[in-house]
Amino acid sequence: MSSQALARPLTMALSKGRIFEETLPLLEAAGIRVSENPEQSRKLIIATSDPNLRLIIVRASDVPTYVEYGAADLGIAGKDVLIEHAAQHPGGLYQPIDLNIAKCRLAVAVRKGFDYSAAVHQGARLRVATKYTQAAREHFAAKGVYVDLIKLYGSMELAPLVGLADAIVDLVSTGNTLKANDLVAVEDIMPISSRLVVNRAALKTRHAQLQPLLDAFERASRK
């Protein structure tokens, strides 16, 4: 590898919001402070107190893509995002550490009064709206339920209320959004947390730079 490439700082891809906020203590545990808050700045490339590390701010669903194709050396993404990415790009990312941050669950929800248990008998057919089509497909296939998947990117709770779908598969944290829209979670699919992901080529060519950071994240995630 060229000396110019080695001199380039490591690039970490992060998304705004909860993942960014819960990553800050992990970075601080590694002795790294972030120069700006992306919620208050329009900058998409953010410096840190470590000249060997910079952050790029991208959409949560884009973090695996930036890392896999080498635009970022490492990143942090939710298990939900990684499952969907892996369906299209199997084996594309190294996922060494579950950081135990941004915890929630992926669940099935329906409108109140909908008889979910009767609707999911063996051989039944269900219309399901979700952003997480791979996880939903695998879940219902394991139950022997046929699903017509409707991909949505937001306002998932609306789908059962207007007859677009019988059920939704979405992330649930407090459940307040479901409750406010007269929906109820009826089945958990899996717990979700965020993982550190690393570009496979960078792991080999920039191992000396990456490993101390990986070690620091692993220690911090166990506290």
UniProtKB/TrEMBL annotation:
**What UniProt keywords apply to this chain's record, in alphabetical order?**
Amino-acid biosynthesis, ATP-binding, Cytoplasm, Glycosyltransferase, Histidine biosynthesis, Nucleotide-binding, Transferase
What is catalysed by this protein? 1-(5-phospho-beta-D-ribosyl)-ATP + diphosphate = 5-phospho-alpha-D-ribose 1-diphosphate + ATP
Q: Where is the ATP phosphoribosyltransferase catalytic domain?
A: 59-217
Q: Name one GO cellular component term.
A: cytoplasm
Report the enzyme's class at the first EC level.
transferase
Specify the pathway: Amino-acid biosynthesis; L-histidine biosynthesis; L-histidine from 5-phospho-alpha-D-ribose 1-diphosphate: step 1/9
Fetch the Pfam families from UniProt.
HisG
**An example molecular function term from Gene Ontology annotations:** ATP phosphoribosyltransferase activity
Subcellular location, record wording:
Cytoplasm
Q: What is its main location?
A: cytoplasm
Listed GO biological process terms: L-histidine biosynthetic process
According to its UniProt record, the EC number is 2.4.2.17
Q: What is known about what this protein does? A: Catalyzes the condensation of ATP and 5-phosphoribose 1-diphosphate to form N'-(5'-phosphoribosyl)-ATP (PR-ATP). Has a crucial role in the pathway because the rate of histidine biosynthesis seems to be controlled primarily by regulation of HisG enzymatic activity.
Q: Which PANTHER family match?
A: ATP PHOSPHORIBOSYLTRANSFERASE, ATP PHOSPHORIBOSYLTRANSFERASE ATP-PRTASE
Family recorded in the similarity comment: Belongs to the ATP phosphoribosyltransferase family. Short subfamily.
Q: How does it assemble?
A: Heteromultimer composed of HisG and HisZ subunits.
Domain note = Lacks the C-terminal regulatory region which is replaced by HisZ.
This chain belongs to which protein, by name? ATP phosphoribosyltransferase
Organism phylogeny: Bacteria, Pseudomonadati, Pseudomonadota, Betaproteobacteria, Burkholderiales
